[in-house]
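Bug report

Summary: structure tokens for Late competence protein ComFA differ between web form and batch submission.
Environment: batch mode, default settings.
Steps: 1) Submit the sequence below via batch. 2) Compare with the web form result.

Sequence submitted:
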Amino acid sequence: MERKQLEAVRQCLNGRRLLLSELPFDRGWIDYCLKNHYISSEPALFQSPSGWHCRRCGATATHLFSSHFCHICQRDCMYCRHCLKIGKAASCHSLFTWIKDEFFYPVKENACVWSGQLSALQQQAAAVLKHAVETETCTALVWAVCGAGKTELLYPALDECFRLGKRVAIAAPRTDVIKELEPRLKEAFPSIETSVLYGGRRKQAIQAQLVLATTHQLMRYYQTFDVLVVDEVDAFPYSYDASLQYAVQQAKKPNATTILLSATPSSSLLRKKDLLIAKIPKRFHNHPLPVPRTEWIGNWRSALKRKRIPSIVTKWLTTYDQYPKMIFLPSIETLQTFSELLAERKIDHAAVYAEAANRHADIAAFRKKKHNLLLTTTILERGVTVENVQVAVLGSEDRIFTAACLTQISGRVGRKARFPSGDIVFWHYGRTKAMLQAIQHIKQMNKEAFA
């Protein structure tokens, strides 16, 4: 019985760092494991001269901590507000992890069954990543245009990982990206045990060799991954939330290889020392990136308030009536207003945003062509591929549409070899620097690709 219980603890805590409330074991058994050095514990929160620190999410800002009377310690207890959604980490709580022996993963030769072919540029980038995996303790960046086939060029490096018995995580800031990756990775590596983690996902293999997860989910891991891939490293919220970057660092082994993927890396990332860079300015199908066009739409906010859809929008919808279409809007309020106006005119569509209850179902229905018009906020600026889609941005002058965001939105168009072109239009009430920068960036990539 003891052996079975210890194995259960190991399966639960190897490579993870969890609160007592997250463990399916009674306190007596936890104390036994602590006494016999199978597991270790450390305070979830600790205090230094500079203030409180959360060991799980890395929070240090004073406003991210609060206190209340605790029924466990019977006194005022500090807790971290920043990572409260995944369980309360308080000053009287501990984080537990397995320390007894290392968990070994099976060696798999030729785990990749993908039969596609990489382009010459993809092969060069794949070679850089494979070298990074073999070198260890290094960071590699794949700087590739939207639609360059970043997922596929990972396959040789992943195959090498599994040949060496390494454990791998592929993380992305947004659930939609993980949901897009899941079927592709499982099809390419069917013999590798894979778990897919995002909010609401249940019953996944805890010790899977390949983990696909949102970056938030990495807060529960600790020094376990030999290779950690961060997709869309420039995307919100990862690029703005230090706790997610902290989670990535905590989840890696000290000698881990880090692989970063981005179409629009920041200048600070490109300046990082000892960074291996593989640049791909061309899509896998060897066609140029569709260049956005700008179109003045006038005071579109005023038009929507008067319950009018600008004529430019109506004309565009008619022109591409038989095509799948996406319209990006700057806010949930604008999206809902626009959606109501379309509904009044009996124009079939779906509307999605981060908190929308039917978001994933509506996106799936759009992919299956049950709707040919999808309204969305920037939540779908990346990670979604729809064949032959035409894209418009309403209110592209809004500050939420940064140059990187507009570049990613433009990257939704022309991703498939059968339909390598398409329309991407920025409807604006005044052109912005971000719009011009996005257009210039895309033109520059095309120039490098076809010089």
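Above is the batch result. After comparison, the two runs are identical; trailing whitespace caused the diff. The first strand starts at residue 18 and ends at 19. Residues 120-280 form a domain with the Rossmann fold fold (CATH 3.40.50.300).
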